[in-house]
Input
Amino acid sequence: MKKFLILLLVVFLSACPQKQEEKQEEVSGAKVELLPTPFSQIVDWNKDNFAEFIPVFENNCKKIARLKSEWLGNSEIKIKTESYKKICSDFEKQKLQTNDAFRKFIENNFEPFLVTDNGNPEGKFTSYYESRINASFQKNNKYKYPVYGKPENLIEINLQDFDTSLPNKKFFGMISNQKMVPYHERKIIETQDIGAPVLMWADSLVDIHIMQIQGSAVAHMDNGEKVRVGYAANNGLPFKGIGRILLDNKILPPEKINMIEIKKWLNENPEKAEKFMQMNRRYIFHKIINESGPLGAFGVPLQAGRCLAVDRSIVPLGSLLWIATNDAEKNQINKLVAAQDVGSAIKGIVRGDYFWGSGDDDVLAKAGSMNSKGIYYIFLPKGDSNE
Output
């Protein structure tokens, strides 16, 4: 085991964060720099509906209250857990309900910092949504595609569980001949019986694939019931987006690489679709959840328009952010959001995935076509030095 840990340390050493001077860190060759910015310089600061954000902040505080770590996450941008707990305690006492009251609360307790990558504040913002599938608890000729729960033989390990000096890196695999090996890829999972529990049966393999890309869905059951399906685990293999796969294989031209056109082609070409979808080796396992919204990586229900998936090696989950970007129709999105989720493609300093909410193809059209430039600010508790 010791040799195994030393080998992993060598492999991942270049990924270890190394702190530099105040409010600057080196991240795999890129530099995070936080530039202090007055609230008065944030575009549309006074125009947001802050009252809408109150339940989001309340959910975050409930989660943070249970944390025992010194910092919110193991991120390059540092936020002291205790500082946040004090703010949350004050929030609970004040029983804030109005737009102006919560805005002033933010101004009194936080300081905004513009996040830049090597001095460049501009980055990429995409979006995602909670999709819909049609399903049944009973398999039949219509509902024949399994929605799998987490298999018992899927193992997750974190390097820091063995040595805290190692990177906070998770691996997924299984045991074969007393050795941990990579887990089954998508093609094997979809074509062979791997012994995973079946949560329900869906009527569309395409819808399952889209659900896996988005991370969650609302299942409309054949008995009229609606069941929320959330992320449980993944097989640990690399993700490759279906858009990239179809583009690389010259199936769709670049101007048609959006989720509406992709979904249309997949449904119209089911046999070819199955082959191309299996080129994405990553597979997501699900679980049934009883929450008001889909659960993000921070473990709280996501609220439409108020959640951003981030790179948690950079941004701590639970932190408050202000994004300034636009949707696919160039409508401005300037608002307060919370870092509550992650995504395999969401990597980098100025990078975010905006949560549109739940719905069908109308929401998919918005979420699947957003690919915008933008900036964001992170709000640090007053007095935190972030050293």
In short: The longest helix spans residues 81-94. The chain has two domains: 18-126+303-381, 128-289.
